[in-house]
Design the sequence.
């Protein structure tokens, strides 16, 4: 299908689907989205905690990855975008870990009933990385059967894979562990480095620092080649790819950029617009 025709189809179908109404939380917990049975594994909910129903809204839209920023305050991990928004009732445990554990129990071992692929929980550390990660590790161990685990050189898949981003000081204590329930979010500087996918399964970076194209006009050939080289290199090492700071205002430019990312087989598309990305990916799969 020609690119302009595909974009037109995506825009039309996206507008129709974006107005769909989310189901109640109880049905999301039970995994009952029978009219939308297939998760959108490449959909990443950036700053997921800012939605009215953290986690549950993303799951209602069938997202395969959600992102939570955390601050270490005492022995609590509080979820917020910045320090001014801290609320002692909004903890990683209450917003993410406990609801995920309940859902996985209800769905007999998976986040999406009948789907064995793990949900990605990207945890972005906003306070000092080493101390925050060590406290986070204690929280993850309380749900040890929920998470994908690295133990003595082997990876055992779980219902949820925790990937640690944010403050880079988390890398040192993580790398020293022989058993851990989390993995490290690398940068393009890590691509092709010594660390294996069992430590860095995800390569993330800022789109604006690596590409000039924002979805308007043709994608420069050199940048398209660069993008595809990044993806093929990562995939050859068993790693996945995500970019943040991509355009996120609804319109032809965003659709064009998402289309290039999807066409290059980028693993996660970043958005704050849950319904918009859901509509785009459904249209892309059916185009």
Sequence:
């Amino acid at each position: 299908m020609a690119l302009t025709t595909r974009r037109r189809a995506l825009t039309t179908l996206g507008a129709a689907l974006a107005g769909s109404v989310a189901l109640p939380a109880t049905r999301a917990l039970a995994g009952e989205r029978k009219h939308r049975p297939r998760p959108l594994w490449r959909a990443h909910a950036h700053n997921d905690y800012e939605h009215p129903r953290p986690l549950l809204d993303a799951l209602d839209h069938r997202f395969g990855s959600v992102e939570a920023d955390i601050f270490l305050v005492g022995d609590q991990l509080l979820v917020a975008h910045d320090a001014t928004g801290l609320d002692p009732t909004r903890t990683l445990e209450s917003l993410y870990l406990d609801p995920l554990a309940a859902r996985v129990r209800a769905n007999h071992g998976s986040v999406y009933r009948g789907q064995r692929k793990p949900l990605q929980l990207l945890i972005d550390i906003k306070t000092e990385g080493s101390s925050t990660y060590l406290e986070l590790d204690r929280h993850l161990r309380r749900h040890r059967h929920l998470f994908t685990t690295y133990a003595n050189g082997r990876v055992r898949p779980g219902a949820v894979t925790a990937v640690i981003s944010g403050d880079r000081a988390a890398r040192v204590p993580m790398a020293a562990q022989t058993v851990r329930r989390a993995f490290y979010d690398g940068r393009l500087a890590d691509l092709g480095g010594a660390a294996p996918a069992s430590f860095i399964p995800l390569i993330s970076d800022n789109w604006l620092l690596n590409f000039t194209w924002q979805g308007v006009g043709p994608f420069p050939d050199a940048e398209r080649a660069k993008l595809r080289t990044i993806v093929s290199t990562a995939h050859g090492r068993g790693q996945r790819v995500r970019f943040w700071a991509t355009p996120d205002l609804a319109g032809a430019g965003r659709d064009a950029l998402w289309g290039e990312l999807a066409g290059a087989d980028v693993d996660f598309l970043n958005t704050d617009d849950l319904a918009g990305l859901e509509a785009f990916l459904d249209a892309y799969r059916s185009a």
About this structure: The first strand starts at residue 40 and ends at 45. The chain is about 35% helix and 20% strand. The longest helix spans residues 3-18.
